[in-house]
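Encode chain A's predicted structure.
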Amino acid sequence: MNQSISHIQTSKADRYLRQLCRHFSHKVPVEFDTRQGSISLPFGTCALLAREGALTLTVSGDDIEKLEQVIGSHLERFAFRDALNVTWERTPNP
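Encoded structure for chain A:
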């Protein structure tokens, strides 16, 4: 299974975590609270962690490019006023 991580600097990490999770909860299984979340897509998962000043996204699955694109594009769209740029770093297979 492939994995990719994105660390996004933002003062609204908890807000974007909730927004992403609520959006995807209409379509796929999602669990979240104020600091962490998990989105289970048919082609992989996304773990979200909100900390002071940063949101960390970790996607895992066989189609890593699709996961990066789907999660990243949604966050960039939700955060258009803040002009967030989601960049991913691939990690070796565990």
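The domain at 2-83 is CATH 3.30.310.50 (TATA-Binding Protein).
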